[in-house]
Amino acid sequence: MNMHVLRTALLAIPLAVASCTGTPVTPTLAPSGVANPASVGMTKSSEGGQVTVEATWGGPAVGATFDIRLDTHSVDLDALDLAAAVLRNDRGETLTARPWAAAKGGHHREGALTFGGDTPRFLAGARWIELNLVGVGTVPERTFRWTIGS
Q: How far apart are CA 38 and CA 44, in angstroms?
């Protein structure tokens, strides 16, 4: 066997194993539970407590609606409801979540998480918003922050 091919195959094995074991490929939460500043753009991610969470926000134009994606290889996510989630802005105002619209999927779930209240007033003039999810996996809470104003 050609040594170059063998060397390439040996280097590919750890990458394949990492992708199957859930090694993060996106920024994760810092130990404080706040989204890592390296999380860039509208999608933030957190890995911990056997569950990976991705939260995507389409910006002020979509209001207080987030696409939440959960992935795990060890726990059943079907019983999870994100209705305890809270959306907070830099002024200390909060919005409460409505029941999470996500189809059952066992180890993988995705759906829209929306918040009730006066969303235009909540977002108007806000410098940032934080999405706080409680009780996902064994992580007590996960906080994702988006900057929206100066």
A: 9
Cα–Cα distance, 7 to 58 (Å, whole number): 43
Per-residue pLDDT tens over the stretch 86-122: 999 999 999 999 988 777 776 678 889 999 999 999 9
- Cβ atoms of 123 and 106 within 8 Å: the answer is no
Taking CA atoms, 42 is separated from 3, 104, 136, in Å, by: 44, 25, 20
Altogether, the residues listed in the chain come to a count of 150
Contact assessment for residue 30 and residue 36, using Cβ atoms and an 8 Å cutoff: yes
The gap from C-alpha 115 to its chain's centroid, in whole angstroms, comes to: 16
Tokens 């998480």 -> residue: 113
Cα of 15 vs its chain's centroid, Å: 23
Q: In whole angstroms, how large is the CA radius of gyration of the chain?
A: 18
Pairwise CA distance, residues 92 & 122, whole Å: 10
pLDDT digits (tens, 9 = 90+) for 9-29: 333 333 333 333 333 333 333
C-alpha span between 52 and 26 (Å, rounded) = 10
